[in-house]
């Protein structure tokens, strides 16, 4: 990573898909512009300027001269920054596993997106029940099984990778949503995942960011 590089991350004013990227910046101690786009009448105009019409988008400026490098799609951004911040896997096999687990998280996220975008209240209730009784136990259970077999306590390999940060962020958020006020879903049913979340969130830069980040509903 060049000392002259500057970064800008563009996303809505909530945690959402961009939060693992913000956590990676926090862990690395690297400054960046956290551009937060309002969800108002200006969004269609902004959307038209984005590579795929979606966010997050990362812009990397090499210094005083030269073109900016623009990268879209959250997994691609995570993989790119992992190499910059020494959060990548060290073997081809481990790198492939990192990709596999992040893709699985994207699949899980898609189930939430289907529910969130549904406009039929009857269908929406059925989808929420399916999230709680089918998709949640499936994905939480599979990740719990993976981490329970890890000698290092990390999802892939002997040390922290970008995949741990993605998993800790997303799975903790989804567990809060699918649980209830009286229980801690991860601690009660998926203790090894709970330990992973605690490890990631206690890392110095990440814990500081979590304490100081803007308050948003999700």
Describe the protein.
Belongs to the GST superfamily. Sigma family. Residues 5-89 form the GST N-terminal domain. GO terms for molecular function: glutathione transferase activity. Its EC number is 2.5.1.18. The structure is a single chain. With 218 residues, this protein is of the alpha+beta class. The chain has two domains: 5-86 and 205-212, 3-Layer(aba) Sandwich (Glutaredoxin), CATH 3.40.30.10; 92-203, Glutathione S-transferase Yfyf (Class Pi), Chain A, domain 2. Helices cover 56% and strands 10% of the residues. The chain has nine helices and four strands, in the order βαβαββααααααα. α5 (121-148) packs across α6 (162-178). The longest helix is centred in the middle third of the chain and has 28 residues, at 121-148.
Rg, Å, rounded: 18 Å
- Give the helix level as a range of percent: 55-70%
Give the biggest beta sheet: 4 strands, mixed
How would you classify the helix and strand content by structural class?
Answer: alpha+beta
The domain count comes to: 2
Tell me the CATH architecture of the largest domain.
Answer: Up-down Bundle
Overall body shape: globular
CATH topology of the largest domain: Glutathione S-transferase Yfyf (Class Pi), Chain A, domain 2
Distance between the termini: 31 Å
What is the CATH top level name of the largest domain? Answer: Mainly Alpha
Order of SSEs, N→C? Answer: EHEHEEHHHHHHH
InterPro entries: Glutathione-S-Trfase_C-like, Glutathione-S-Trfase_C_sf, Glutathione_S-Trfase, Glutathione_S-Trfase_N, GST_C, GST_superfamily, Thioredoxin-like_sf
Keywords: Transferase
Domain GST N-terminal: 5-89
Protein name: glutathione transferase
